[in-house]
Amino acid sequence: MKIKKYLLVSVAPVALVVPLTIAHADTFADEMLIGTSGGGLVYVDEEENVVEPGIKAVTFTSTRPDDFDKDNPNFVDPYFNGTTDFTGLDSRGDVTNCLMASNDNNCDAASGSGKRIKNYLTGMDPYNTRLRTVANAYPETDTSSVDYFTFGKMSNFTGARITGFDIELLDKDGKPMGELSPENAVLFNLDVTADSLKAGSGLVDGLFGGGGQEGEVGFFSSDKTKFAPNHKSDVLSFGALSNPDYEKFFGTGFLDDTMVPDGIFFWGEELDLTEEGDLFAWNNPSAGGWTYGTLDIDANLPARLEELATSLGVTVEELDYVAGGAVPEEIVTATTASDRFAVDAIEDLRNANLNYTMTVGTVEGGEVTVRISPKFAPIVASATTEQQLQNAIFVDTLAEVPYLNLQGNNEAYQEALAGIEEMSAAEKSKFLNSIGFGYAAAFTNLGFEASRDQVRAITRHVPWSSANSSQDVNSNNDSWLMQDGLYGFASQSGSRSTYDPTNTSLGYDIDVYALSAGIEKRLNGTNSSLGLAVGYTDSEVEASQDHGKIEADGYSVSAFTRTRFGDGGLVQALVGYQDLSYDSYREAPDKSTAKANTDGSQVFAALNVDYLRDMGGFKVGPTASIEYYDVSVDGFTETGTDLWNLEVNDQDSDILLASIGARGEYQFPTTNTRLTGSVKYTNASGDDLAVKSGFVGQSGLAPYTVKGLDEDLVDVSVGID
Questions:
Q1: Which of 100, 147, 288, 464 has the most CB atoms lying inside 10 A of its own CB?
Q2: Would you say 506 and 388 are in contact if contact means Cβ atoms under 8 Å apart?
Q3: In terms of C-beta distances under 8 Å and separation of at least 24 residues, what long-range contacts does 90-96 make, across chains too?
């Protein structure tokens, strides 16, 4: 059936005679999106035929005739419909003006046809969508104000639970629209009577409610799960999600994408990942694994179970189906072998529909900003660094998302976090830092510093001092001639290195004390030697703000060679291995001490070239070196606290140092004392270190990355031998 375009407005006769009485408010422009900013974006879902920019406005357009039958939809070609006020409309199907996804649909298209604008919240900051309005676009229509319904959807990619959110309307200068007169503003219409047009937000009906597009009952609950509303004309405020069935598993917050469980999905005919499958079971680790939900209403359930059993090659009895009960292991195995089942994340647990109606007046500057401001738990909102944020999200998840707490002690974590808002900024920082192992990178860096001390002990002094093979030993307190061409040496050294805090790591100091001893054989008739050295190290890490310490001791063995050339040239090369034992003492958030011990090892190698020339009492010249360190630390488990003991995985780090500069020596007359010094330009590079940890018995904290060395340094050293 075709219907010609016609005008569905009632105009008083006087309006035809005196057109100046027709008022003209703004309408949204066809190309309405000016841009987005802050913590979000509009997602362009090409699978639903959405094109850039992902959002569009439809104005005064209908495709449903007067005799529209929703049971047997009879859509017609789009025609003009000048409805401006939605207050008294009966349903969403009567809407003529809307903001929706930029595909071929119109406002009154069938439910489930992909009309919703997909807003991805990607960060903690408010998310702004700037929209353009135009004046007098429909001069034939009385538009003193125009209502627009928004088909919205919000997806949580912030990394944290969202505990609520506000939607604000701002003018072109960022001021609240509520401060303007209504005829010159864009405001929410809170007077609409149809439930489907009222401002609201909640999870999709396929999981909680009447089944939505997927069936006749929600998988988790037949009751809807909605955000608690508290609205004003220019701010829609949404609080916690409410539904006892939702709260039992997921708390009262809106889950982040990383928190949603996997589900087993079923396709009735054949696997088609471009279409949504029906949810068959979900993975609930707190209940032991795969768990059934509600698969259908009672009247349809026998046929549904028969279909599922047939597709799996089992009997209905073997399904052992009980809503909320465990899926038998044999059934899980059967789904993996079937081409009609697949495992995927239950994405709709991080998606929420957004519905609201805006009334557009005459807008100064032709611009309105829709701002979505997510809210977070106090501990998450208190974080000031990336490391603190990861710690806060982790412990907040254990406290507030029951299905992810494998020990069932979420209330204990809630109690531990209860006082966070009363803490000072310094106390909050200390608490957040102590949740995780914020200085875990110190284990590998301690190994690096201890190995580097062994390299220095071997390369900083040569027992024999001349290219002339007949010259005597260079006598000092560290070395001695044992017999012809065989030398012994021993030394002790100490060093301190400071590692500044970063966005993902606490700061700390490393103190190393080392003893080294060895023998060196000068090859007869040559300017070369070979040697072996052993070393002992006693080292300690002190974390900033008294967060804890690490003690380590161990032994090393190295093989080396040296060759003198020319008048003052020296090449040294070595390779070595070091083994360390670590004892860790970390202060937990409740001030108790978490203790652990573990082992680690280092493989290291170095090549050093000097060319020192005599200049009076000094020797001065260029120097260059390259050093490589491969450091490994075994994983460990802490003890000593109730809630805060951590399991920390293995750590591995590779570090490369390349240096060039100048070096000098001064031998004090009539003594065995030598002053040494150098100035080097050093390029330090190393792998990023992914530190993965988690509370004992719980699901792991997401790995946080400590950036590897990537620095250009000026290395100045002074020493006395």
A1: 100
A2: no
A3: 90/194, 91/194, 91/196, 91/197, 92/149, 92/194, 92/196, 92/197, 93/64, 93/68, 94/64, 95/149, 95/197, 96/58, 96/59, 96/60, 96/61, 96/62
The residues facing 591 across adjacent strands are: none
Q: What is the dihedral of CA 304, 308, 314, 316, to 10 degrees?
A: -20
Strands 569-587, 548-565: pairing is antiparallel
Q: Can you point out the beta strands (E) in 568-673?
A: 569-587, 593-611, 613-615, 618-633, 636-637, 646-648, 651-667
Beta bridge partners of 302: none
Closest among 511, 517, 529 to 454, alpha carbons compared: 517
What the block records as the tokens of 63 is 């495709």
On whether the CB atoms of residues 199 and 324 are closer than 8 A, the answer is no
> 26 near 3, Cβ under 8 Å?
no
Task: Please name every residue paired with 153 in a beta bridge, in sequence order, or none if there are none.
Answer: 118, 353
Q: For residue 465, give both structure tokens.
A: 């001092």
**Rounded distance between C-alpha atoms, residue 150 and residue 156, angstroms:** 19
Position of tokens 């209905």? 316
**Bond from prior residue into 53 cis (ω within 30 degrees of 0):** yes
312, amino acid identity = L
What are 646's strand-pairing partners? 695
* pLDDT tens per residue, range 8-67: 333 333 333 334 455 568 999 988 999 999 999 999 999 889 999 999 999 999 999 988
Where are the extended beta strands (E) located within 451-568? 479-483, 486-499, 508-522, 528-543, 548-565
| DSSP secondary structure, 546-586, as one string | G-EEEEEEEEEEEEEEEEEETTTEEEEEEEEEEEEEEEEEE
d(CA 464, CA 479): 9
Distance CA 611, CA 664 (A): 10
Alpha carbons 223 and 211: distance in angstroms, whole number: 10
Q: Which two tokens stand for residue 508?
A: 């700390």
For 644, what's the count of Cα atoms within 13 Å in the CB-facing half-sphere? 24
Specify the amino acid at residue 357. T
Quote the CA–CA distance of 60 and 200 in Å, as a whole number.
24
Cα-Cα end-to-end distance for the chain: 101
Instruction: Tell me the per-residue pLDDT of 571-626, one tens digit each, with 9 for 90 and over.
Output: 999 999 999 999 999 999 999 999 999 999 999 999 999 998 888 778 888 999 99
**The tokens of 699 are what?**
């699901």
CA distance 583 to 347: 43
Q: Could you give the count of Cα atoms lying within 13 Å of 175 in the half-sphere of its Cβ?
A: 9
Closest C-alpha among 309, 287, 285, 305 to residue 295:
305
Tell me the two tokens of residue 479.
């070395």
